[in-house]
Amino acid sequence: MRVDAHVHLSAWWPEIRRTGYRPDLEFTVAGLLREMDRSRLDYALAIQLVHAASELEALAEGRRVAEASGGRLLPVATVDPTRGERSVEATVAVLERDRSAVGIKLFPGYRPFYPHDRRLDPVYELARRRGLPVLVHQGDTLDGAGLLKYARPIEVDEVAGRFPELRLVLCHLGNPWIEEAAEIVYKNPNVYADTSGLLPPPSSPYFRRARELALRRVEEVVVSTGKPERFLYGSDWPLAEIRASVDLVERLKLEPGDVERILGENAAGLFRLKGAVAPRPEAERRRAAR
Ligand SMILES: [Zn+2]
Predict the structure, then answer these.
(1) Residue closest to 140 by CA, chosen among 151, 124, 156
(2) What is the pTM of this model?
(3) Distance, CA 94 to ligand 1 centroid (Å)?
(4) Which of 92, 97, 135, 238 could form a disulfide with 169, with the two C-beta atoms 3.0–4.6 Å apart?
(5) Domain range spanning residue 116?
(6) From the CA of 189, how far away is ligand 1's center (Å)?
(7) What's the N-to-C CA distance of the chain in angstroms?
(8) Confidence of residue 88 (pLDDT cuts 50, 70, 90)
């Protein structure tokens, strides 16, 4: 099974013509599915945006997208603790009943809060109880108004320690703090990282060199942590082309089976996707040996 663990498809993105990897990009369910088909992807996690008028509207949009895609686009809800305790409570109450979301995304950096902000505790509690992984935006913000101090991997360490049963995903390998992200993954058995957003648009004159650099960096974190089971392929579509992002992972020089794990088996297990491929015996052996 192949899964893109990081795409966005939302009407709350008016800047798409300027920020997408191609100005004529088809920013629709059909356009996204076509790109997924070209790279033989079964599913993609459609991460809702913090720019939505409310978390509940974002959730409703996620459900519409899931339906229109025949269940191939899996909604990921968002929560913004800076909207206040009441708003967090209301979103948690809805997520308690609504079973459509497969995960929850936080946008520290885009919004001024740290992942260890205590206002998020009810969200982490719910996520732990329901087995919903929490995806945390990391590193660079597209929007110059963001504040990077909130978006460093080191800030996720405390959450991982306080909620050992909660599973967390560091988005974009923490780029540019990739080494820091590697350490958070290495130290905490409940932390994963995705490979999204590491490539410039294919039209960039630096595309090939940037791709080589990204390839080296991803290989380095997988090898240095020795935890291939905790890395997830992601593109960050529409900011990056899906084909180029899959190609990046396919070209990683890793032990047999690890590329396919990163391309989908790990995500299938983490997000409990139907038809998930059972872990292979050698992966089980490796896990037991640690
Ligand atoms: Zn993203």
Answers:
(1) 151
(2) 0.92
(3) 23
(4) 135
(5) 3-289
(6) 23
(7) 26
(8) very high
